[in-house]
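Complex 334.
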Amino acid sequence: MPLRIVRNDITKMKVDAIVNAANKTLLGGGGVDGAIHKAAGMRLLAECMTLGGCDTGKAKITKGYKLPCRYVIHTVGPVYVDGTHGEKELLESCYRESLMLAKENACESVAFPLISSGVYGYPKDQALKVAIDVISDFLLKNDMTVYLVVFDRAAFNIGEKLFSDIAEYIDDKYVSDHIDSRVERMRRAEGNRTFARPLAAKCEECCAAPFGDDLDAILSEIDESFSQMLLRKIDEKGMTDAECYKKANIDRKLFSKIRSDVNYKPSKPTAIAFAISLELTLSETAELLKKAGFALSHSNKFDIIIEYFISRGNYNVFEINEALFAFDQCLLGA
Ligand code: ADP
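Predicted structure with adenosine-5'-diphosphate bound:
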């Protein structure tokens, strides 16, 4: 089940539970805590007063009152000192404990803020990574839709090594693309100055080859739809359907739709999410995408980022989404 990174005010999220980055007293505070208490009303504070506080890394649950969610899960993130005071383990524990509480209370959807990344000073890029790691691990074993609500994306520091590598990769591809198109323009201009080539000659070069002996192969390729190829690949990889759609960050219902409709036409991010889940090579990815009428190109960042990850054999859809998010691209799966 999917992890979705969204920009929103968490108090507006229509989910079963939202998570509050609370302090140990659970009696309200600033930041997201203040916003949640304000939107939920005084009865939330009254219930919180009965809970006897909460330790760092732990979580407690209350009703949502005036909020559009059923529950509020209050967790206490660590105050960031310098990274050597168990901050990471405590922050991981916040996400794990909150997810367990959500599961125990039969929540199908939960929204998290970036715990500890405000007043508590946890560096936002690292806080995001911890959140994604713990949530994605949980989602591989559990059915839930989890939203990570990022309030102020502009404040993100994407200077980490991964992102600078990707930025460099994008630059490289853009540069080569740019050069290619310049060469192409010159070539065309040159062609226009000479004379048009006879149609017959063109046909021999361009048309005859692809539609010659390979015609049967091409027609038989058309026979297999996206859905059929996907199901075949799942079998070939020895995966179960659930393993595949979870690893693709795809919703079970969407997968069922694709499974039952032989002519289903997925969106490009959905098709790519399956290629990632199946750990296809770049050429296999191209083959699968072609079934849905898509291709990877160097003319947009989204495609280049996907190519970057596949060419490095990194098939972690959550890490890919983290990078896509940082570069303001639409995400895979969900
Ligand atoms: P902490 O004390 O755990 O650092 P904060 O409330 O100060 O908690 O900040 C946690 C994160 O929540 C910050 O990234 C902040 O930008 C974000 N935030 C603040 N208000 C909201 C809101 N209404 N919805 C979602 N996120 C919010």
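Residues 9-11, 21, 31-33, 35, 77, 113-120, 149, 151-152 surround adenosine-5'-diphosphate (CB under 6 Å).
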